[in-house]
Amino acid sequence: MMSLSRRHVLMGSAALAAAALLPSGCGQPPGHLKDLAKRKGILFGGAIGPEELADTAAHELVSRECGVITPRNALKWRTLRWDRSDWNFTEGDAIARYAAANNQKMRGHVLVWNPVENMPDWASDIPSGSAGRSQAIQLMETHIEQVCAHYGDRITSWDVVNEAFEPYSGDLAPGFFMDRIGPDYIEHAFRKAREAAPHAQLVYNDYMRWSDKYPNHHKGVLKLLENLRKKEVPIDALGIQGHIGKYYGTENDRHWRQFLDEVTAMGYDLLITEFDVRDFAPTADISARDANVAALTKGFLDITLSYPELKQFICWGLSDRWSWFRQSEPREDGQLQRTAPYDVDLKPKPMYAAIAAALITAPTREPSTT
Ligand code: G3I
User: Fold this and answer.
1) DSSP 317
2) 142: which residues sit within 8 A by CB, 6+ positions away?
């Protein structure tokens, strides 16, 4: 079995030391994350889905910690439009009611997500290639109009386009819209989104690794952002998903800062939209694993939150109880991944303390108006 890298051990110690400096360590939250964030002008929140809606313990946690929530899957095409002739807003509406009842903002995820597997099966009736271009544009634009009209100003920030690139080549990836409309599907989506949601923040959302493993992906996104600016396409911010940890290469702080410098120099705001940490440290020792996750958390956030353009920070679930990794990426030893700030019993972990510590040391910024 490999040992944990020296860097992670050192970073883990630093995160734990930072956690120890917090008023009540990591056993007791030092304050609600939404309040710690708000003091710095950052809107903090989490993604939720049917699991959280059905779990009364989750309600207390999510309302206490989150100033903003985002539906994990409720606003995706396959949820909203599984049926060709019928829309299903049930889960999205339940989340919107939840946000309103708790005085939380709501982000929208996602209007356009290009891979064919993210589209309802019936959409494949539209022919591929240029033969399907006008139909595909119409389908996409009508979708954007109807979803935005349904939620109106209740959704203050939208992921308009998600994950458009092939990570290795940095080229736009093939997929439902790319194959029928071509590269300008992105431009069409943002222009329609501005018409349909004139007050919302419009975001291009992507993985954006904190490593140099996919340099072409970073280059591709920078080129896209630059071209969209030149063409005056209405886009306000880059959403950095922030699923960090294994599979994403070795962290490279210099490379990461350089990327963020270039994005912000173009005048874009930043968001962390889907934060969690893959818990693949090769040890069964839970405290070592938690320290590793906390260290990665602190290392990533210290850099990313240092940008005053970063105004929102959202975890892809607050607790391991509802983590998507449970099914999608099990650990080799069969143990449950510990990827979120709270464990399955809704107790805060060192990752929670690392987030709190990073928020405490982050510079203050002008809060987002969206
Ligand atoms: O709802 C059905 C359920 O009825 C059925 O019994 C079950 C059987 O597998 O599937 C359920 O749907 C699954 C859904 O999650 C809810 O659990 C889908 O198959 C599964 O594909 C879907 O996965 C989601 C994935 O996006 C694809 O939409 C994950 O929950 C969600 O965490 C993940 O989120 C993405 C972001 O949208 C974009 N960035 C990356 C991130 C992680 O992959």
Assistant:
1) -
2) none
The predicted pLDDT at position 247 comes to: 60
How large is the average pLDDT for residues 14-26? 46
Q: What is the pLDDT of residue 29?
A: 59
Minimum mean pLDDT range among 78-92, 176-190, 239-253, 300-314: 239-253
Residue 216 Cβ inside 6 Å of ligand 1? The answer reads: no
- Indicate the top mutation candidate among 52, 53, 73, 79 to test ligand 1's pocket, ranked by most ligand atoms within 8 A of CB: 73
Distance 118 CA to ligand 1 centre (A): 10
Tokens of 257: 């800062």
**By the 8 A CB rule, do 313 and 365 touch?**
no
* Tokens encoding 353: 């303390």
Q: Tens digit of pLDDT for each residue in 86-134?
A: 999 999 999 999 999 999 999 999 999 999 999 999 999 999 999 999 9
Predicted confidence at residue 71, as pLDDT, reads 98
- Give nearest CA residue, ligand 1 atom 29: 324
Residue that is written with structure tokens 């099966």 in the block: 121
Q: Which pLDDT score, from 0 to 100, does residue 249 have?
A: 66
Within a domain: residue 217? Answer: yes
Residue 1 resides in a domain: no
Cα(58)–Cα(340) distance, integer angstroms: 14
| CA-nearest residue, atom 15 of ligand 1 | 73
CATH value at residue 320: 3.20.20.80
Mutate to test the pocket of ligand 1, among 324, 329, 337 (most ligand atoms within 8 A of CB): 324
Structural domain that includes position 342:
6-361
Dump strand ranges (E) for the chain. 43-48, 68-71, 105-113, 155-162, 201-206, 237-240, 243-244, 269-277, 310-315
Task: Compute the radius of gyration of the chain from its Cα atoms.
Answer: 20
* Count of domains forming the chain: 1
Ligand 1 centroid to Cα of residue 73, in Å, is 6
Rounded Cα–Cα distance for residues 96 and 275 (Å): 21
Ligand 1 neighbourhood includes 324 CB (under 6 angstroms): yes
